[in-house]
Amino acid sequence: MSNIHKQAMQVLAILPGVDCGGCGGCGFTTCEACAEAIAKTGNITLCPACDNDAIKAIADVLGVEPVEVEQKVAFIRCAGEAAGKKRFAGLESCQAAKDAGFLHKECQWGCIGLGSCTQKCEFDAMSLVDGKVVIDKEKCTGCMACMKACPQELISMVPEDATNFIPCSSKAYEAMTLETCGHGCIGCGECEKACPQEAVKVIDHCAVIDYDKCVGCVACTVKCEKKIIVDELHDLTKVKEEIAFVKCVGGAKANAKLKALGVEWCSQAADLNMKAMGLCEYGCVGLGACTRVCRFDAISVESGVAVVDIEKCVGCGDCMRACPRDMIVLAPYVGVKRVPCNSRDNYDERLRVCEVGCIGCADCAENCPNNAIEMVAGNPVIDGEKCENCGVCSYVCSRGLIAERIVPEHNYLQVDAMKIDRSHSDERKW
User: Fold this and answer.
1) Residue 193: in which H helix or E strand, if any?
2) What sign has the CA pseudo-torsion 150, 156, 162, 166?
3) Which CATH fold topology does 72-161 show?
4) HSE of 209 in the Cβ direction (CA atoms, 13 Å)?
5) pLDDT digits over 216-251, tens only?
6) Three-class SS state of 278
7) pLDDT above 70 covers what percent of the chain?
8) Cα distances (angstroms) measured from residue 131 to each of 85, 265, 410
9) CATH topology of domain 3-62
């Protein structure tokens, strides 16, 4: 037995020995062939499934210096359901589904969900749960077999200790991504601009992280317009600059009337003559278009009007885009009061159609000692730079609309992350 063959047998005993069938990163069909190549070439890192202990053992066999390698695990760059998963259910493979083609409004870059990758995993590190591929990081060895099995090229190897991830591979323009997937990257580039390490780049309309540069900071997570960046270090419900704000509190009357008429969708209500029915044509109708798209369970309909849970809302804007009546805007999470009314009617009409909304009396603006309130189209708009939270506007508002909300101190992670100046306000209300 030659010395090389003897070393190959010793190396083989160290390798995982699962035979990836040519799908693994080493490129060989068997672990035996891989071991022989290692013995012949001295390439002790040829098998990507070996951890540093195994590489050191191989180095000892070959009598060479060991090297440290970065341990990697698989990550699937898709978090959505837009690639025709339900339609493709029952087909034999992801490749067969891809060959069948995608329909309009289906993401041609997304996960198909038939689990071709899971079938190639020899380490039991991948499973298919309700059409979603789940990776067990503790079991994943980074062998790369799953990566080669995915016809969508969705799987990449990321550092085992990575904490930030972008679960999207779409190359579609923003409008198409918004139309097809609530979890997709829109290529806005805000994460790229915010990253202090220049570790994020938008390539073909999709953000990509360079893990050689990424230090796991909070910047990209905070700045992501769609709030799709997975951050394992920070709670996304606390790391935010803006949250959704509903410009109405008086939707109960309209909601009851429309339900009695059999109207089920906000889009239907948008086409009706609300004024002729004695309803506010600018208000929320509470039929839930916003609640259906919220991924964070942060918006609900209460007493006929949409209500935002500021603890859960991350400011992704999905509800804003879903509202056909333009009732929702993104508002600063800290430091700014807003008046929840969108009416453009005159005083008498407001009194006729709504019992709780702003009547445009301007008492708040006239009594503000800092001139921080301006009446725009009959509604008060508060300038956060001038407002000192003195409480006068809340006191004089006859309808009690200008309520101050206290943001809990434990939710102030973004202040340090984004260097927000809060020195002007000790009470931190909005």
Assistant:
1) helix 190-194
2) negative
3) Alpha-Beta Plaits (3.30.70)
4) 29
5) 888 898 899 899 999 888 877 777 888 999 999 998
6) coil
7) 93
8) 7, 29, 36
9) 3-methyladenine DNA Glycosylase II; Chain A, domain 3 (1.10.15)
